[in-house]
Specification:
The chain is mainly α. It has four helices and no strands. It has one domain. It starts with a helix and ends with a helix.
Length: about 55
């Protein structure tokens, strides 16, 4: 999941904000809907993604 956050940051730096927003939204939906073991494994990247998504809106 951290890779997706990095990918969204690259898109933001390139000025492609809609793509970055879509990547982050999709990642958050999938992470929050995943089984608890997968959520725990990726929970460190969720606050990062939420913070970036807030900065895009």
């Amino acid at each position: 999941m951290t890779v997706l956050v990095l990918l969204a940051q690259v898109h933001m730096k390139q000025g492609d904000r809609p793509t970055a927003r879509e990547i982050l939204q999709t990642m958050l939906i999938k992470a929050k809907g995943s089984p608890s073991y997968a959520y725990r494994r990726n929970r460190h990247s969720i606050p990062q993604a939420e913070k970036l998504l807030k900065s895009l809106k």
